[in-house]
Design brief:
Two copies of one chain form a homodimer.
Chain A (H helix, E strand, L loop, with lengths): L2 E5 L4 H12 L3 E8 L7 H12 L3 E6 L35 H16 L3 E3 L15 H14 L1 H5 L5 E3 L7 H10 L24 H12 L10
Parallel strand pairs in A: 1-2, 1-4, 2-3, 4-5
Chain lengths: 225, 225
């Protein structure tokens, strides 16, 4: 059985990606990051999800991106509310080089466990315009990864960065996940949740999520009334 | 004045690179990693060197690569002594994806401070065959970096990964550094130093360093008799 390293934030996209990798027959190794994010509660969700979906191992890597700051998620900058999510401007919730750092750790993890398949829930339709979610970025990362490690020098294998959601809308992602029996009640997408984990409802991530569930004519199962 | 982010391990190569970037007229921002390396004492050296050469800021980033292990530098694996340094086999001192992780953090740091110039002391002549020191790897990282960030979307600038030592032998690196007034007595290259910082003399890194000083007909100024 091939091993998959899956980036798992505890949000809707990465949870769907984890379920998708499982459905493809991979043995699952999840990796999450405690990076100083204001929505640190997502890690609690990630742990629940990893246990529910069934992973061999779940690494939670502490790295403090507050050392650099420069983002509303890691610094004293307000998370924008009710922003126009059609805007092409990169919002202040962008975290400098975050996916590059996350994928680099995933690469180290993959190399050590003998995996060549790294999964990320990036998507470019209903998203916030983050540059490190674009297909051309992921392709460039994959090329770099294939020159970076002893694993590809010592074998004939190549690393693949899998982004199965890359061209799906949020509504399509949810539909895919429902078909894979994903329990979205454990997922958290909000950038600025209340202490009890309830989503704010108006950050970019909440807006995109709400739109996705609305287009599936259903209520968000994570919202407790 | 352009800002340079310089990876600084406290070794001979990165110290020479820092001095080289200074001589090119850059404002210096050094970055080092406390990654669970057995030769943790190199960070003390890095601090001294950063202060002596004169940097605007020196970030020391804690990341624990012992989480993954898989290397003699981060795991319970002996550091090879008196190994044939002409061997083409990648030695167990290779740390999975280390330069990719280090450069990713350097990219985040650069983006936040508005720098587009990242310096690394990688070289491919007198080295241990690490895949993430090869020019083709560094070129691929640079391409990826230029798709990864908001900085290149929002400006016309491009990131450059500078590896000024890439084609120099260890002897040539030392010669270059001496011409730049580098004080090599503060540098530490050994993978397995004694508690007081004295080098073991027989790991790959010591062998390469000793060869470099011998070819310059001089004693290693870091060795206290």
């Amino acid at each position: 059985m091939a091993k998959a390293v899956v980036l798992l934030s505890g949000g809707l996209d990465s949870t769907t990606t984890l379920a998708w990798a499982k459905a493809q027959g991979y043995e699952l190794y999840a990796i999450s990051f405690q990076y100083g994010q204001r929505h640190n509660i997502e890690l609690k969700k990630a742990r629940e999800i990893a246990a529910n979906i069934g992973v061999i191992e779940h690494k939670i890597v502490p790295i403090d991106l507050r050392l650099f700051g420069g983002s509303a998620l890691t610094d004293d900058i307000d998370v924008p509310k009710n922003r126009d999510i059609e805007s092409t401007e990169i919002p202040v919730t962008y975290v400098p080089a975050r996916n590059t750092i996350f994928l680099s750790f995933a690469l180290a993890y993959a190399e050590v466990i003998g995996s060549f398949d790294i999964f990320i829930g990036a998507n470019v339709l209903d998203y916030s315009g983050y540059p490190d979610c674009r297909p051309e970025y992921l392709e460039a990362f994959e090329k770099m990864a294939n020159l970076a490690t002893a694993a590809t020098v010592n074998t004939n294998e190549k690393f693949q960065i899998h982004a199965p959601l890359i061209q799906l809308s949020k509504a399509e992602i949810i539909k895919l996940g429902l078909g894979l029996n994903v329990d979205y009640s454990s997922t958290l997408s909000c950038y600025d949740p209340a202490v009890n984990g309830q989503p704010c409802g108006s950050c970019d991530s909440c807006q995109l999520r709400n739109k996705g569930f609305a287009e599936n004519d259903m209520a968000d199962p994570a919202i407790k009334l």
